[in-house]
Amino acid sequence: MAKRVHQVWKGNNIFFLCGRLIFGPDAKSLLVTLLLIIAPVVIFCIFVARHLRHQFSSYNAGYAIIVAAIVFTIHVLVLLFLTSSRDPGIVPRNSHPPEEDIHYDNSASVEVGGRQTPSLQFPRTKEVMVNGLPVRVKYCDTCMLYRPPRCSHCSICNNCVERFDHHCPWVGQCIGMRNYRYFFCFVSSAALLCIYVFSISAFYVKVLMDDHKGTVWKAMKESPASVILMGYCFISLWFVGGLTGFHLYLISTNQTTYENFRYRADNRINVYNRGCLNNFFEVFCTKVKPSKNNFRALVQEESQRPPMPTSRDNAEPEETGDDRRMKVEDDLDIGGDLLKISQRHNIEDIEADIRSRGSDVPHHNLSEVDSVLGSNRRPPAVRLETTRRTSRGQSGNWEIGNEGSFVTPKEAFQ
After folding, report:
1. How far apart are CA 201 and CA 211, in angstroms?
2. 8 A C-beta contact, residue 112 and residue 124
3. DSSP β-bridge partners for residue 166
């Protein structure tokens, strides 16, 4: 049975509903985030907003405080869901390296099967033009592709993500091109929710002070939940409020968190900055691009790839195993013959020994030996020299003259 893409996905993502929802590998952290959002709102509605229902006489406006808190919380949770459960802009990885960028480096060859094979090399970077300026993009060994501009490989999700901003553990997902808008709205909405809960809690403390005509300390003792909520929202506002302000700066200058932290000290020209208004328009008013991955599609079997061209295309055909084995045996026979030759005392014994082998020695081996030894029918003198190490660690030469006489190493040096 054919499998679907999400079943054979090589990244570290977690899928739900047959690939309709995609989360990061740390999706369990969403439970903590949900608890930090829902628990304070529940406490607020029970211990603060409930007592303010009849505080406003006209049209029971006090109920609007509870409704606004619930609606605002649902809005924040929807943005959290849209941020964490959608494809952030994952670039589909290749099943093989791009062939058009392959070249062979003969200087860095690798020995395979006794032969020097040139190693495959990829340019680690390429230059592309963005807004008329060159931008260097890098090759990703994991995804086997050249990353598009502003793309980076997330080590947690093990994916290349377009316009990679960062991996947020609070939402359990990478923040990239397709979910950055929802991430910013989630953070800013959470900051507004903190301000709302803090303000209403402080208002309730003021109401208690007026009703009992006491000091602020007595009012705080009457409603400790308000004090806890005010402290919690104050601390949280430093986090989500500061994050909102930081991303407002990034949007206005068309940067990502990754680019800001990595290239801040390089003083590079920001080729993506199109002006403050255009930058905000690009983030909030442009259509979100569709995902490049269909996680529910059936996996297609790849067709057989043609062999890659090599620098040995014009070389002679490769020998088969039997041919190589015969060649090795022939070479060993020649070596054994030469060893016996070095132990003979005259040329007649040498020739007689070789002729006595008959068909055991291939014809081309006899011709090779004859070319070394020579014969009485050949006038030119041939010298065969081999080197051996004596018991004293010295080397001597065995020489065979054209007269057929045997010369010892000692005589050869005289």
Report:
1. 15
2. no
3. 175
Question: H or E segment at 170?
Answer: none
Angle at 77 between CA 156 and CA 61, to 5 degrees: 160
Pairing of strands 395-397, 21-23: unpaired
Compute the distance between CA of residue 181 and CA of residue 177 in angstroms, rounded to an integer.
Answer: 8
Which sequence positions are flagged as catalytic?
168
Average pLDDT, the chain: 77
Q: How far is CA 171 from CA 102, 278, 369, 407, in A?
A: 39, 28, 81, 90
Is pTM beyond 0.85? Reply is no
Phi, psi of 243 (to 5 degrees): -65, -40
Site of tokens 């190589």: 324
Q: What percent of the chain has pLDDT over 70?
A: 66
> What's 4's DSSP letter?
B
In Å, how far from its chain's centre is CA 278? 32
Helices (H), 256-320: 257-262, 276-284
At residue 336, the 3 state secondary structure works out as: helix
- What span, in angstroms and rounded, lies between the C-alpha atoms of 414 and 369? 28
CB atoms within 10 A of CB 50: 13
Q: Are 251 and 184 in contact (CB under 8 A)?
A: yes
Which token pair is 401? 């003259």
